[in-house]
Batch of 2 targets.
Target 1
Amino acid sequence: MANYDMLTELLDLPNVRVTHYQLVGKHRLNLFVESTLEAAVCPNCQQVSLAMHDTSEPQMLRDLPIWNRRCGLWYAPRRFKCTGCSDTFVERVVWREPGLGYTQRYEHSLYERMRREPVAQVARIEGLTEEAAQGIFERRAKKASPTGATRS
Ligand SMILES: [Zn+2]
């Protein structure tokens, strides 16, 4: 059985394990990851649940590039059933905001670059649409400054 401990260590996301990887051509790397936590906290009643219900469809989340390859994390969020309120809920992970197609650190890195370089240029290098890149910039700018920073 293959062991991906080294990739897990290099990836360095909390409570995440690499289960598989895939090189796509010369410029892409896909990492298949899963959460290593056995429990999740119900957002409704704060009870800790060990009862895994199911997993959602795997999603591809953009992460920081490695060795000049664009990196995509394939991750299937897990759904738990709460024993307290019987609700089912999707586990939260600290490295990604729900609903977003990229990791927090990717967002941060892009934001820092777009503060110095034109958005269009960063978008082209990253293979994103300008709208997507601009959206990332604005989200992060709002977080960075409560008054809402704007691009100068
Ligand atoms: Zn609950």
Target 2
Amino acid sequence: MASPELAVASDHERPSSIIDDESSVTGSVLTAMAGAENPRLREIMASFVRHMHDFAREVRLTEEEFELGIEFLNRIGQASHDAHNEGILFSDAIGFSSLVCLLNNGKSGATETAAALLGPFWRMNSPRTENGGSIVRSETPGPPLFVSCRVTDPQGRPIAGVEVDVWHASPVGYYENQDESQADMNLRGKFTTDADGRFGFRSVKPAGYPVPTDGPVGDLLRAQRRHPYRPAHLHFLAYKPGYKTLVTQVFVDDDQYLGTDVVFGVTRHLIGQYERHDKGDAPAGDVTPPWYTLDYTFVMEPGEAKLPKPPIK
Ligand SMILES: [Fe+2]
């Protein structure tokens, strides 16, 4: 029983929540939550409870399955720490992150969008790097990659002064924070677009990689007979006041997992043409064939500029 000090006026006024049977629980919970002052909290929690209750009814959830589900949630929390976010991974693996991304970009889901998942590996404060500079900060064997990008508005006009974070996995599929052989901030950089909206950099061609499978999400993937791989990609985050912050990924077109991304992040718009060069003059003197180039144009929509919360430190 709630102590008198904790009781609030609305508790005394609302109808009794003594439960008659299975069918009356949902209504009682919705009534109990109806006093939330924040209207968005009210709306979201009411919908969440309705769907959760209907979900349990639809599958006739057993007590053993309920316990398994709670244990799964607890394991997600226990597996998460400063350098790993199992919660995002779970959301990604059931396509929920991708759905939320598509609902919130491209005119609220009405049109194709250039946006994609942030993923679990963005870090704040990537090293500022001059245009054309290299983001290879420690020896990283792999095919050289030269990237030339442009940022425009929806009318195709260049946007100068956009801050663009770039990050990606190595040619063996590890981000620097997962791999002791890479220097801190290897394959990460921050660029600013010039007067033509351009920025570019040198790196190495990334490889696809498995998402971490040593936690509860890995157990789920195995139970569903799903492979854990993401197709190779570069991550970008473009920020300028007056424009909706663009978080996106550009996928490598010849990757074997392009059509079966474990986190459902690939849209047609985000497949880049990573062109292989087997002869001719490379863009840098120390480079011998083969090397790759990628040209890509990002479109930023007018809107609010805000940075996401970094999933790791
Ligand atoms: Fe990634």
